Amino acid sequence: MLWITAIFFEAFSFILTIGQKGITNNLEGFPTDDGTMVFLAFIFLIAMVMAVLSLSLKDKANRWANMIIGAIYAIITIGHMLAVWTLPSYNPSYHTLPLWGASFIFKVLIVWFAYKWPK
């Protein structure tokens, strides 16, 4: 559930940004070329796969997968937030900070619950 919620926050942020600024040749300061869009598709896809794997993996594999992938996603979220909000040419949408912040918190919770999962 945490994976689905975390990725929902990010998707909703993108939807609001596109609705506010319209579809242009960049999204939140990054180009919307094919490579970027494929990268974003994989980011969303991996998170959705993790939601399914969280229900189907054995405990030890589930714990490690959630700790590792959750930590990577939390780092990506912080990196994205810092990159976008520090771009001089970027005029941020103020809805992005609480949505990305919530997404980051949920990813940290994924790692925390996986770490505290009984061995």
Tell me what you see in this structure.
The protein has a domain at 57-119. Helices cover 77% and strands 3% of the residues. The protein contains 4 helices and 2 strands; from the N terminus they run αββααα. It has helices spanning 2-21, 34-56, 59-86, 96-116, and strands at residues 26-27, 30-31. Helix 1 runs antiparallel to helix 4.
Spell out the blueprint of helices and strands.
Blueprint: H1 2-21, E1 26-27, E2 30-31, H2 34-56, H3 59-86, H4 96-116
Antiparallel strand pairs: 1-2
Amino-to-carboxy terminus distance: 21 Å
Count of β-strands: 2
Q: Which of globular, elongated, flat, extended, rod-shaped describes the shape?
A: elongated
Strand content bin: under 5%
As a whole number of angstroms, the C-alpha radius of gyration is 15 Å
State the low-pLDDT regions, or none: none
Kindly list the characteristics that best describe this protein:
single chain; 119 residues; mainly alpha; two-stranded antiparallel sheet; 4 helices; 2 strands; 77% helix
In short:
By secondary structure, the protein is mostly helical.
